[in-house]
Design brief:
It is built from 14 helices and no strands. By secondary structure, the protein is mostly helical. The chain has a domain at 87-299: MetI-like fold (Orthogonal Bundle). Helix 6 packs across helix 8 and helix 11 (228-243) runs antiparallel to helix 14 (271-299).
């Protein structure tokens, strides 16, 4: 497993280089001049040129690219054009918030989604199945921004139970976590249901029943345990997406996470921040995929990592 892990980690390097290169050149096609935005609308051309020279934006683009790569190799993500702070500090201050929101959303979504999926799969074709899948389809179909505004109106404006914006307390996580987790719980429920239905058809399940095991032991000890790989896959993917920052939900709740930071950086044409955020998003996704693959072998020793 150690050899497999090292091989996969080395294989990440070309992918990250491609991502860094693509993002570096692509964001410079975005309309707008960061030097003009920093200098101000009333600044003269001389002032704008002075800002551009100070930021190194007057250098040839290939020179800027190699300067950026050199900084990455030395652990320097650059300085934010918007706040004049190191990008690493900007991201670190938001990363904790995003991680808390991700874990809160994924925790309740996984529990609810798995239980709903197992319940529907066990009662395939019955009213329990139709009810569970109707709820799941509804959860996927409801737009996040609409659900977020609805929760704000009900629990923040009408009942005054929860704050509407900000971070720093568990109360600030409740409404955004519900908003984010609803669609994730629905996705997990559908994957779990399909996996349970297929597993219940296997010979070892019929053998377990023939031995006289209780239905609960058959369902959770045999069927669910052997359908965990599908569940782990979808949970891992959703974890990667959430760590990338949910832009819409963070905007609705004015939540200071990575998604809102990305929007702010794009609006300001903050090249160093945009490049670093997308690099981190990509790295997170690659690492999570690797962890999911390793977890396969833990859940099912018959799977060989190669």
């Amino acid at each position: 497993m150690l050899k497999y892990t090292l091989k996969r980690m080395i294989g990440m390097i070309p992918t990250l280089i491609i991502v860094v290169t693509f993002v570096f050149f692509f964001i410079r096609l975005i309309p707008g001049d960061p030097a003009r935005m920093i200098a101000g609308e009333q600044a003269t051309l001389e002032d704008v040129e002075a800002v551009r020279e100070n930021l190194g934006l007057n250098k040839p683009i290939y020179v800027q690219y190699f300067i950026y790569l050199n900084g990455l190799l030395h652990g320097d993500l650059g300085t934010s054009l918007r706040t004049k702070r190191p990008v690493a500090q900007e991201i670190a201050s938001r990363y904790v918030n995003t991680m808390q929101l991700t874990l809160a959303s994924l925790a309740w979504a996984t529990v609810v989604g798995v239980l709903m999926g197992v319940w529907s799969g066990k009662h395939r074709g019955k009213w329990q199945d139709y009810t569970g899948m109707t709820v799941a389809v509804s959860g996927i179909s409801v737009p996040n921004f609409w659900l977020g505004f609805l929760l704000i109106m009900l629990f923040a404006v009408k009942l005054r139970w929860m704050p509407t914006t900000g971070a720093g307390s568990w109360r600030n996580l409740v409404l955004p976590a519900i908003t984010l987790g609803t669609s994730i719980a629905a996705i997990i429920a559908r994957f779990t249901r399909s996996s349970i239905i297929e597993t219940l058809k296997e010979d070892y399940v019929r053998t377990a029943r023939a031995k006289g095991l209780k239905e609960r032991a058959v369902l959770w000890g045999h069927a669910f345990r052997n359908s965990m790989i599908s569940v782990v896959t979808v949970v891992g993917l959703q974890f990667g997406f959430l760590l990338g920052g949910s832009v819409v939900t963070e905007q609705v709740f004015a939540f200071p996470g990575l998604g809102s930071l990305l929007i702010e950086s794009v609006n300001y044409r903050d090249y160093p921040a945009i490049q670093s955020l997308i690099l981190i998003f990509s790295l997170q996704f690659l690492v999570i995929n690797l962890l999911v693959d390793i977890l396969y072998a833990v859940l099912n020793p018959e799977i060989k990592l190669s």
